[in-house]
Amino acid sequence: MDHATWPTGTLVGLLSILILYKIFSARMGKELFIRKIPGLSAIEEAVGRATEMGRPMVFVPGIGGLSLATLQALSILKYVTSIAAKYRTRIIVPTIDSVVYTVAEEITKDAYTAQGVPEQFNPDDIRYLSDDQFAFASGVVGILNREKAASNFMFGLFAAEALILAETGHQVGAMQIAGTPSILQIPFFITAADYTIIGDEFYAASAYLSREPTLLGSLVGQDYAKALVILVILAGILTVSMPPLHLHGALSFLNHFADWVNWFK
After folding, report:
1. How far apart are CA 57 and CA 244, in angstroms?
2. What is the distance, to the nearest Å, from the Cα of residue 169 to the centroid of all Cα atoms in its chain?
3. CATH number of 38-210: 3.10.50.40, 3.40.50.720, 1.10.3470.10, 3.40.50.880?
4. What is the pTM for the complete model shown?
C-alpha cells in the first residue's frame, strides 16, 4: 500500500476518465482505429483451408484452469467455432481441466446454435484428456496425427509441451496460429507456427474479433493511457537528469516540473 497516495489516486482517476471517454465515444458510433493483427486476421483463412481440404481443425485452449488467459482463449474459440459452423467444418477441442471442458462444450454448442446448425455440434469432439501435463500433450499429439488436422489453433497458457504440440502440427501439415502470455514459450511458437500472437495482442483478441464498442473503447483508451504514462516517465527522466537550473524565465519551468514529478513519489 506504499503507492496508495492521493497523487497516485489522482493519476489513476485521470487515466480512468480517458478510458471511459473512449468507451463512450465507441458506443456513440465513433470509428476507432486498431492496427491489423495478422494472426487474428488469418483465422478465417485457416478455417477455410480446413473446409477445402475436408479435414478437421484442432483448438487447444492451453493447459491452465479457468484463468484470465484461458478465458481469453475461450473467447477466441467462440469466434473460431462460429466460422466453423458457418462453413460446416469439424472442430476438435481437447482440454486439460474439467471446468474448462464444460465451458468449452457450452461455448461450442452455442456457436453452432447461433449459426442455425445445432445438429452439426458433436459433443464427442469436445474432449477431456487428462489433468497431467504430458499425458495431455500426448493425447493432443495423437489427435493431430490420427485426424490429420488441416488447422491447429493454440491459445492460452502453455509450458514445456508447447514445442511438442507445435512441431507435431507442423509435421502433419496443419496451418497453425498460436498465442500465449507465456513469454518463455513464444519463441517455440514463432519457430513452428505460421502465425503467433505476441504480447498485448493476445488480450486484444476479444475486441479485435468481436468489434464490440465497449471492448474497443476500453482497448484504445488503455493504449492512450499507456502512451500518456510513457510520456510522463520520459519527461521526468529528462528533467531529473538535468543539472539544477537557477535561470529565470522559460527554462525555470523545468525546476517546477521536477518538483511536480517528485510530488508523485
Report:
1. 64
2. 21
3. 3.40.50.720
4. 0.78
